[in-house]
## 1
Amino acid sequence: MRLVSALDAKLLRDLRRLAGPAAAVALVIASGVALLVMSLSALSSLQSTMDAYYDRARFAEVFAPVKRAPERLAERIADIPGVRTVETRVVGMATAEIEGFGDPVTALTLSLPETRAPRLNALAMRSGRAPAPGRTDEAVLLEPFAEAHGLRPGDGLTVLMNGTRRTLRVVGTALSVEHVYAIAPGGLMPDPERFGVIWMGRDALAAAWDMEGAFNSVTLGLVAGVEPRAVIERLDALLAPWGGTGAIPRADQISHWFLTNELAQLRTQATVLPTIFLAVAAFLANTVLARLIETERREIALMKAFGYSNLAVGWHYAKLALAMAGLGVLAGWLLGSGLGRWNTELYGAHFRFPFLEFRPGAPPYAISAAASLGAALFGALFAVRRAVVLPPAEAMRPPAPDRIRVDLPDAALRALDSPTRIILRAVLRTPVRAALSTLGIALAVAVLVLAMQWRTSIERIAISHFEESQRQDVILGFAELRPSEARFAVGRLPGVMAMEPLRITPADLIGPRATHRGAVTGMPQGAELQVLAGADGRARAIPEGGVVLAEMLAEKLGLAPGDAIRIEVLEGARPVIETEVVGLVDGYIGMTATMDLSALNRALGEGPRFEYASLLVDPAQEAAFLKATTRTPMISMVLVKRAAKEKFDETLAETILIFIGFFVAFAGALAMGVVYNAARIALSERGRELATLRVLGFTRGEIAYILLGETALLTLAAIPLGWGLGWGLVKLMASAFETELYRIPFDVPPEAYGWAAVTTVAAATLSGLLVRRRLDRLDLVAVLKTRE
Amino acid sequence: MSDAQPVLAVRELTKVYGEGPTAVHALAGVDLDLEAGELMVLLGPSGSGKSTLLNIMGGLDSPTAGEVRFRGETLTAFSEGALTRYRREAVGFVFQFYNLIASLTAEENVALVTEIAERPMKPREALALVGLEKRAHHFPAELSGGEQQRVAIARAIAKRPEILLCDEPTGALDSHTGVLVLEAIERVNAELGSATAVITHNVGIAAMANRVVSMADGRIVETRVNAERVRAEALSW
């Protein structure tokens, strides 16, 4: 008995014979599948890690800063309907002095209950232990901060808190659910060298920050299903007399906000791009298989002549298509899972979780397989159908060459040599097929344009932020509002060449469409060190009255220039400012609202004050300057722009560029797959003609020109088309990627087009060389004896 | 009728396919001269080795042993590039299944060869030689089998080849059409003086040749000179 039917034996041999095209189809499909699986598995893993961590660590749902509230207020807070858990604490911004590290280090100090574990925001200890009760010099450090400076339990650390220098003893390191994304106030990226978190016992911090019997931060856990909005309203009312500056829900908590933004972005990345990619891959698999089966026309007729039913013939080729596509799906799954895990770990390095759950989930696998196999099957069966509807006798003859409907103009015909005529007529005679191949290559070009411009877009954001908008070298933050005269003291710090005050006041910005809990920035007239920069890079004038909103914020609030805006200030006397939107600025970063500093001070009913200072510092005296800041009481934050920019670039290189690398590789594979199959199928259709030409005395190079010339022509036609499609794709992605933090500039630099074209041509050339090798082995004798 | 030197001189030509007990001797020591201007018919049943001989003479295949000399040069020692040049400049091929390029018109199929030849005739001239000047703008699919074969002949001779090799040129055609094709071959042989070898297993065609070479089992079994040639138009089978 035969183990394999004759037809299945044919299938296996066909697969072996078609190893090249099968590999190309599989490559194309594997690229699409891998990208989808990689992105979606990273997304679902991060999401489930986040959920599990938040749950285990009892992440608070409401966070409220207050100037100084008596501890007994905690009981009244606990009575707010919907509140399940209340945890009060003492916080403060300190500067740390680390030996051998010249840059200033800002640290957030946070209190831990003396005798019990925190009810909310539990620490995940990574080494050592929590501070012992009553030990005022013991501290736990945020793990990445400790790692960045090589600090271990037992080491000492000097900090400047509230104007007093103290030496602490590190007793442990920990990760915190509040600081998964540990970012300094005003920073864009976590920088564990320059920003850290230090936990100490409540008594120690209360003494340091004058908070005995009081707290300046409260976090709440809510009863399941309770909306934070109503709780926040009551909490704000309770805290207002004690200097509450407005509670925020978990959604606005900085680390969570960055994390969810990143996840949202990853979701866009994981859905929009791979969907496009998978659709392209499926489309290509479809056309490639259709062409491949067209070349099997005679075999199909023969099978029918032997009495096989249409169904049997269809199933035979369906299996061939499924085998090729299945190979791609399998390879894509494997590659995608591996990359997904790697990608999750990459994110894990930026978002510090105490554990990572790699939970790829079934959907990406199912979706990618269904789309790929479906498209392949559809393409195959469509082609088989066209072959089986013909009577066997007719199908056994080669397809009647289409009568040329459009021919080249006479002048062109005369000017061209015969090989070129063959190339051009091949395109003119099968316009649909030529168009599909061109479209396939063009889509690869489009994905490449997108990948290549990405970096430029993000660099554009960085330039807008770090160069056009922030022109200072250093931003100083003060523990409290400083009177205007304090600027002279700042100006006397070593190396300071210029200084401008800045004020950032927490406020609710209210428009007809929404309320945004953010801040109003006060800038002095004629400011040069920090300016309102638009997308064009030019500074906008700061109006003497009214407020200038970022376009994205105006959009959110439903406001246009000329509209009235209500600003409910969340600090000091908590005044309400009714003013006018006098302009919009179209920058890339943030949800900014900017006023004239004097106007803001007046509206707040206060004299000239500031809490931040922008400085230009003589580079030669930078070290002396930084040393002085660490010894100056009241300076709670020192942001060195050079360091922030370096960190930004470093993070960019680690994450986005790697991701772009994958896109380029996958898109290159896509282009290669399409070109290889186009050329390979052309070879199987034209092999006889090409061999005849060899017999007639054409050289190998001359027939390669005919075969690859057509492919080259289609590739060249695809490039401008792909540029257009890429432009559209970039536009689509720019709007899909917009978050509250920033929007992606719609900017495609010429080199993105150039590199996309170069990569495509390189992929096409490689494919061409692979096919050319087959061309050199054409059997010249066989062709003479065989009928077409 | 013969020059001092034949155009092609075949000596001790052997071609073995495969090895050991399954080896097939397609040619087993063949000696043959193709003289300038002559029309030779190679007769023989399938498998007698005539196509293998023609392929080696045309520079498409290499022998296992023996040699072929083209105007005194050893063809069988030529490199790949030299063989291509030989086919390009000296040889015209006519195949059983025409092997025209479907996307080129009759005239363009001929031009394909004239564009790369050294001193070709005009494509129109070549078509006129085979009586097809009026069909110059037709694509192969618009021509009958006989017409396609005549285009193939025009394509083969447009370069004014010294050697014209025809492998079963009438094999796919009916008798009447076949005669038209043979007339064309006869005419170019007479007018251009190309040394012509026609392979056939059709004995009826032999009468038009100067010389008839019969093959069997890879050997030449008979060489016969026709004292009187029959004109192609008088042939039938």
## 2
Amino acid sequence: MSPWTGPAATLADRVAAFIAARMAGGPTESFAALARDVHAWQVTTAPVVAALVEGPIADWRDIPAVPVDLYKELPVGTLAADEPAITFRTSGTTGGARGIHRMRSSALYDLGAVAWARRCVPGLPTDTAALLQDSATVPDSSLSHMVAAIGAGSWHMRDGELDRSGLDARVAAAPGPLFMPGTAFALAEWLDGDPAPLPAGSVVMVTGGFKGREHRLEGAELLRACRDQLRPARLVTEYGMTELSSQLWGTPEGPFWPAPWLRAVAVDPHTGTPLPADTEGQLRFYDLCNLDASIGVETLDAGRVRADGAVSLSGRLAGSPARGCSLTVEEAWARRTP
Amino acid sequence: MSWSAVRAWRELLHRIDPSPAVPTLSGAGAQHALAVQLDALTDTALDQVAAMPGKPWSTATVTTARTVSTAAIEWCAVLLGRGTRVVWKHPLGAPGLAPLLADAAAKVRLPLTVTADRAAVDDAELVVAMGSDETITAIRDRARGTVLGFGHRFSVAWVTERAGLAAVADDAALHDGRGCMSPVAVFTPLANADATLAAAMVEAQRRWPVGAVAPAEAAAIRARRALARAVGAVHEGDGWSVHALPVARWSAAALPRSIAVHQVTDVAGFAEAMAPMLPWLSTVGADAKIPAWPAVRVAALGRMQRPPLVRRHDGVDWLKATLQPADR
């Protein structure tokens, strides 16, 4: 039974139908119409979203995008505080407040995540050995949740430490190709131990960065070392965020491709005005699956969005305020508390 | 001792145009920032420092952050006046005023050189390090001499009289609000102080137009604006913004020409908000009595970024700390 009721249930059905039709290559209603309707419902039920509306919504790009920092500060979305929810939280690696994304159900999240992963990586192995924490142990990790939705398997990070021996044994005993998703840092750690090549047909997925940690292997060097040592059939990249319900997939040499129900816009960080295609700016996403939160999400990442929708990521926006001058009260308490 | 040369250096610096060297500030903003820094080097203050007993170091390196490129001037003046040879280590790719100041120093035969090379801290007898906590830790790891480290701090204003808000706008305009002594927020029992401060920000912008704002800074200002739309009030104009926010949403983020205003019932409410942040609090600009907090400088409104030369810096007696220990 759908956890959504009334207009929300209708919208959820329309989003699910949009996903199914786009994956089947059939006709769908327009992204713009569905985006406007989802936003209109969110305005009536999500006070933070409603507060950000400053003018008429003539185009889906006019829909206000909630800055990711607000997910740390305020309850963004359509759920009341006492409503049961699936909750994803940002990592909070800096010791600061964690962004919170709550949803009534992960049904749309799972539907979209699995469909787009399998479309972007045809033949994706179903046997997973993840360089991540078990989704059962960290149910608030959206990344572990996504990987669990894509395929069952084993988990090889515990309390932030790589389970190197378990991972090596798992690879050695694998009867067939493996899907090996992990963060860049975890992969770099594993490669330090000179692991054996993967079974034929295996796919390595790299996502995220180093979260403030340092390693000798970074960027292109890390990917080269991955190819040389692990010899995967495919090396793919993934971009996702706790605040989003949909993902982008790509290759190390190419851009990221958003799911058809997720659109990206680069905006001028000074004004929030959308920029022409292929112009570097601050990335904003519009995600139809973010039904219970905000359809528009504004990141702190810089990149370009091509006319065909593909996204090239440049990294974090330049010129971050000095860290020590940017302590939040929560960070200060975190630093003071052993 | 080279105090006469330091005075001559100061006079030369009064005549330079700093604006090309400080691209983050407007021309008027850069000239204002330099003039304010030089104003602290009064003859009286220099005489006071010269009269202090103690043995100077032979060599010193002063490292500066990107945020306030004039911050090293007073340190260099004191060290050079005492006869110390000084290297000014600036951030890679961001020399700021350092080359101009070194050129001026050479004209009056003061031994000031500039570099971006991290090795400059290795063998200096004294290293004065300004920057992030991570930077200072890295400097402590490699320096063989004495290190005086000053990490990033933040400052706030406590305003009880509406007339004081114009001075807060002036404080926020200096260095475009990026300095550790710039007010990042106003705490006040006054109603509608945000609107009054907004009017003052317009005037400050007219006198000292804002300089360049980095993409991440701009994004952070817009994020705070969104927060204020949701739970507060927004005032904004060309190059400035004021956000009225509940005190529960207070953060010490230093954003260029963007100030948060938090209304509290009384000074106890202000003290409560500061409590978890005291280790990082540099300066309170105040027009009324506030609690005595160790290591926190209290300044008149409008003087927050104009500290006198003879003072404690982040709780440290820096004029004494830049001399050799008595038992050496």
